[in-house]
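Quick log. Single chain, no ligands specified.
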Amino acid sequence: MHPFNTIGIVGRREGNADVADSLTQLVDYLLSRNCEVVLEEYAAQLLPNQRLTVHSHDSLGSKCDLAIVVGGDGSMLTAARALAKHHVPVVGINRGGLGFLTDISPDELELRMDEVLAGQYTTEERFLLRTKIRANEESEQSKGYGQALNDIVLSSGKSARMIEFELYIDDQFVYSQRSNGLIVSTPTGSTAYALSGGGPIMHPALDAIVLVPMFPHTLTARPLVVDGNSRIKIVPGSLHDTYPLLSCDGHDSFTIAPGDEVFIKKMEDRLKLVHPLSHDFYESCRSKLSWGSRLGD
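-> predicted structure:
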């Protein structure tokens, strides 16, 4: 007997033949291990001949003991926003690019899943960020909500112009800035967009948030790392009458008008990631970011 009875499978939304091959292999493997298998709707579209129970993207997490995401890190980001609220552990099969979050390679699928089903795995929790946009400081009316595992980004959107904004942390004024925007990132997102913006790489176990300015109009602006429980507020200005965009993991974009306020804080729900025992964060950095190995290796 293994610790997981019902296993849900999530497929990459823009699936291709490689994703379909891994999904087919995974379903056949799990059924041979007498697992009950349920499919998320996008995975089901790539497996039209499978006669398995299908659930919506949002409800799958309530129907399984373990979720397996087949795709890239983008697929895991999408799945995380739906699965975290159900507190279901998640493992990733990499059919994308870097694979920081989906860390099992397709050619080791059965070997690593044998280990997971035998209880030979490690787990870690990753926190997500939640944002709320309030219409203006006099109003309690919300213009929208969003969630992100990687980052929440305020940017100038399609315009090449700079934007201006004020930043507050725990109700304390930090600075006013003119730049192309601001990246508010979790440790998970520190190896993604924040890294390309000059932010630090943060170990996933850190309880911290990093704020990375995007092309700031000053040489002294630097990334700022704050406590993970910090309450962040961003108040955009009206420079050039530009209406910035706020995006969550590259999705759920909101147009921000002058006078609006953006609030960001940690979510209570966390993503529970399952890794093979061989998983090593620093080895992932070496292999995926081309860090140097030991001398003599």
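The chain has two domains: 6-120+277-288, 128-268.
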